[in-house]
Design brief:
The complex is a heterodimer. By secondary structure, chain A is an alpha/beta fold. Chain A has 9 helices and 9 strands. Chain B has a 6-stranded mixed sheet, sandwiched between helices. In chain B, strands 2-1-4 form a 3-stranded antiparallel sheet, with helices on one face. Chain B has 3 domains: 126 residues, P-loop containing nucleotide triphosphate hydrolases (Rossmann fold, 3-Layer(aba) Sandwich); 53 residues; 32 residues, no CATH class. Chain B is globular, with a radius of gyration of 18 Å.
Chain lengths: 223, 232
């Protein structure tokens, strides 16, 4: 359960929101507060006022995996292996366990061939995959992805979708500009001007967005 | 005006990029998976990378600009207005075009990612160079901003526009399709003949083709129109 009460932070104004679904997509125009909401939910920023609870706890007490929208800003190490290993290493996990986690996460995300590569030599999309593997290597209880798919081609985005679907996280909070991807979520939040304008199942939310471009292309052609 | 790729070969570690072909005037879309070499090809075309062998030859191209994949790499000034000035453009025109009115005095890094992309994209398009290369122009933009970007691209009535993108929902009308896979550039040809053999077609276009429709171009509207024609 994700619960938000009387949240006021920068442009965000969310009086009351409870979401019990697993795969939650956040959509809306640029500058509507999607990233700010994700940062607050991930515990990266403390809200100026109000309360956020994930699984009944404050975000700082929850293992959160974060994949940011600027892959260059979140990558700390120069070698892919070390970047993915940073998650277990920062938690003082033993070397053997760290190695297993790195290889497992790289395998799941489909980048075992990149483990020895230099981060600086990767393409933009590959960097997003490394950030995802690093987030998965920590077995997060909540996985937060901020437009991680904006640098990915269709096939790779599908793979990321599968990884996220199969992750053991209790919640996956994902913001995306792809309405076709959002249509596959369990629950949607449509944000506008810092406010959650619509929320509900994809069917309920997209029914209110049919006249806008925030509507899945596949739903349009299939009609 | 045209750009020729003559047996282009570029290698870095285990990766090598190969390509031959001619980019004529019009809008070209180069699609391809992550890591296939789209950005590297963009840098080669922009002459920011030197090929190991072969050449990029420009004919009658007097100006060229590359929009980088990550807009933050393109920023050189502490305020949005100064940044626009550094492109040799009038701040008020670009701010209006990028829908960033009253943000002129802000630090570009205080813009959201989508806003920053809109800013750099508007600057690049409004310079209107002969050769315009756009590396992932639609990433991070919402659908409204993508539509505006498509309109601006379509309104360029001359010059060569090369778009490197994996966008799957909002695309402009294009003239030629190209594919990058594992470092090799392949020409699919001119639209509409090239559409059925375009392996990276977005799902809505693939759906229309599978239904037996013949879209005139690659946009969602083209797919819907073609479906209407066969469904009656």
């Amino acid at each position: 359960m994700i619960r938000i009460t009387d949240l006021r932070h920068r442009l965000l104004n969310i009086p009351d929101l409870r979401v019990d679904s697993r795969h939650i997509a956040v959509i809306g125009p640029n500058g509507s507060g999607k990233t700010t909401l994700l940062t607050v939910c991930a515990g990266i920023e403390e809200p100026s006022a109000g309360m956020v609870r994930l699984l009944g706890r404050p975000p700082s007490a929850v293992k959160v995996g974060w994949v940011g929208e600027f892959p260059d800003r979140t990558l700390l190490f120069s070698r892919v292996y070390d970047e993915i290993a940073s998650t277990p290493r920062f938690r003082y996990r033993p070397c053997r366990e760290t190695d297993e986690r790195v290889r497992a996460a790289a395998g799941t995300v489909g980048i075992p061939h990149l483990l020895d590569a230099k981060v600086s030599a990767l393409s933009g999309g590959e960097k997003a995959l490394v950030a995802l593997a690093a987030a998965c290597a920590g077995d997060p209880e909540v996985l937060v992805l901020d437009e991680a798919d904006s640098h990915l081609d269709g096939a790779t985005a599908e793979r990321v979708g599968r990884v996220v679907q199969e992750a053991t996280a209790a919640h996956v909070l994902w913001c995306t500009q792809s309405m076709d991807t959002a249509a596959r979520a369990d629950y949607l939040l449509f944000m506008e001007g810092g406010v959650v304008r619509h929320h509900g199942t994809p069917k309920e939310v997209f029914a209110r967005l049919e006249e806008t471009c925030f509507y899945p292309t596949m739903w349009r052609v299939r009609r | 005006m045209r750009v020729d790729l003559e047996d282009l070969l570029f290698s870095r570690g285990p990766f090598s990029l190969r390509g031959s072909g001619t980019f004529e005037e019009g809008v070209h879309l180069v699609s391809g998976p992550v890591g296939s070499g789209k950005s590297t090809l963009a840098l080669l075309l922009a002459e920011l990378l030197r090929p190991g062998s072969g050449a990029v030859r420009r004919h009658d191209v007097s100006s060229a600009l590359l929009l980088l994949q990550f807009p933050e790499h393109q920023i050189t000034c502490p305020t949005v207005a100064e940044e626009i000035g550094s492109w040799g453009l009038a701040p008020e025109d670009v701010l209006a075009q990028a829908d960033l009115l009253r943000r002129g005095d802000d630090d570009p890094f205080h813009l959201s990612r989508g806003e920053l992309k809109r800013l750099v994209l508007a600057c690049t398009l409004m310079r209107n160079p002969d050769l315009l290369m756009l590396d992932e122009p639609f990433s991070s933009l919402d659908c409204t901003a993508k539509r505006t970007a498509c309109r601006m691209i379509e309104e360029r009535d001359e010059g060569i526009t090369i778009i490197f993108s994996h966008e799957r929902a909002v695309l402009p009308r294009v003239d030629t399709l190209w594919e990058m896979e594992a470092g090799t550039l392949t020409a699919c040809g001119s639209v509409p003949c090239a559409i059925p053999r375009w392996r990276h077609a977005p799902p809505y276009l693939r759906y229309a083709l599978d239904e037996g429709a013949c879209p005139e171009n690659i946009r969602l509207a083209d797919a819907r129109e073609a479906l209407c024609r066969i469904r009656g």
